[in-house]
Amino acid sequence: MADAVDAHLVADHLHLWRGQRHVLRGLYVEARAGEFIHLKGANGTGKTSLLRTLAGFLWPEEGEIRWCGQPVGQDRDGYAVAMAYLGHENALKGDLTALENLHYATNLRHATPQSAQRAVLERLGVAAQADLPTRVLSAGQKRRVAMARVLLSRATLWLLDEPFTNLDTQGVTDLAALVAEHTRQGGIALVTSHAAIALAEGQVRELVLA
Amino acid sequence: MILATTAPLRAAGLVLRRDLALAFRRWEQVTHPVVFFLMVATLFPLALNPKPSLLADVAAGVVWVSALLSSMLALETLYRADVEDGTLEQLTLTGQPLALLLLAKTVAHWILSGLPLVLAAPVVAIAFGADAAANAVLMTAIALGTAVLSLIGSVGAALTLGSRRGSVLLSLLVLPLIMPVLIFGARATALAMHGESAEGPLWLLGALLILALTLTPFASAAAVRISLE
Amino acid sequence: MGTWTWFHKLSSPPHCYRIAGQLIPWFAIPAALLIVAGIYGGLVRAPADYQQGDAFRIIYVHAPAAWLSLMCYTVMAVAAAVGLVWRIKLAHALAAATAPIGASFALLCLATGSIWGKPMWGTWWTWDARLTSQLILLFLYLGYQALRSAYDDIGKADRASAVLAIVGVVNVPIIHFSVNWWNSLHQGSTVLRRGGPAMPASMLVPLILCFFGFTFLYAALACVRVRAEVLRRERNAHWLQDLAGRRGRTESAT
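YS: structure for the whole thing
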């Protein structure tokens, strides 16, 4: 996290249309280093659209996204490296083992020793499944492996879309603690979740989309 | 500013290796295009007439039409699985040049769908009574031609990702674009089978390949980004 | 910046809708005059060809249609590229409006070519180089239309088909070259030596009139279709509801 101190994300008055629907209407979000933002809102209020816009998949009709003061369109690859995105899909190949999946996903960004990959799987409680093809894992275990990819990404900005899906109660608590640890070290996390995030008062900022 | 520390070429190598590793775990899928190729080629003597002189006349055309149809069939699988499991969107977020990563995927796809055809083509040609001396030209031409098809097809496959109808639509987009490949490839093969020099059309195929290599990865990258919107 | 403001003002949907509407007569009237004059000159005044007799007269529709089918593809690809690079929706609307016009001209060119072929070659279709490239061009248009209609979202349809149009326009000269090359190897030179070395002015002038007339016809049709595209894309916009409301009031008043 080389420039975690300066980490600063601004979504400046975003207007986004999906077909005939005006999903984001002049939304302004600002996130500074150390912030854990919980995005809430009923179905269809644009939580996923907002995350996908911040991840650079969707182009807002108006407004811009700035990372550390620079519009992200100017240095797309630099921004991509500073960001980790966890979507609805886990981005795992069922025929590859958990470790192989992590190997291909993280080494595309930077060389990562296998010991580091095993350590992260261990932390997420799926060390025993490291050498199994991910297609035999349970839905919750797959989600954990996908989260391991985010942890190994060395990204400052985490965009997590419903990361708690399919996790058991303990898993939810552990993952929330991991994200909180990331933000304490100067990272930024934007997390959508329908469930409440069980963390001490003041650690999480709630943002409700309507 | 942090940049991806993996060199782009190494990243491309990883993508290539991943796709090959995946294919070898589903080996039967790799054999489908070849089997399809052999079956289509078998249709011609049944539909036309098994007279050796006639078959030798149409051999070059039959090999080429069958090869193009079968690699067209395989194109559908190029990005589909990666879109469904979310790996394609992760590929766009690695900070690596997307065009290069997609080129690596296309090369892997060609190794799995084009290369087997290169090996199977002489079998069909000989079964049609073509001179075995033409095999070197035939294999070179099929190798170049299927490579161009994979590159152009990669754009088409990426363009149809976000749409409703898949396979037939893809053929409608790609077939008109690859007619030059068919013209030069079949001509080179026919010339070689008649014992003439096929150098001219082979160079033209090579030129098409270079053009496709330089342009289509960028079009594919644009198309993939559009499909993820 | 002046040009940019002008450009953006022009590309705003209400503005474009109005301007396209105002332009229609400026294109449609010259188109009608030129085509009537050209067809009259070609069918009535021009002498019969000494080899082809009266059959050659179909050239007054065939050749302009061939020219426009190519021009439309180029216009479409350029508009698509502009729309893709600068994210201008109006450019995409122009590309969408042009495609069916170009496809129609390609079809018209094939049909007239085939009608001409019957008395000349004794067959409705021969694999002549020009006809074959024209057929592939028609296929390119059909692929473009198929891709467009496969998307529900207009924005995605615009951008995806734009990529296809650009890839296609790079391919058009290659297809043309390859088909000519293929044809020259398989057949002797074609019967149709268009015009020959010296076409008398009485034949040439009507042809030129028809070329310009058809081009103006395209421009007029494009304006009409761009207006329709704008309406389709903006059907929920306020300016359109205002416009419809005003129209409704004037109509009930009269």
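YS: worth flagging: Residues 44 and 57 of chain C are 10 Å apart (CA to CA).
IM: good catch. Also DSSP finds eight helices and no strands in chain C.
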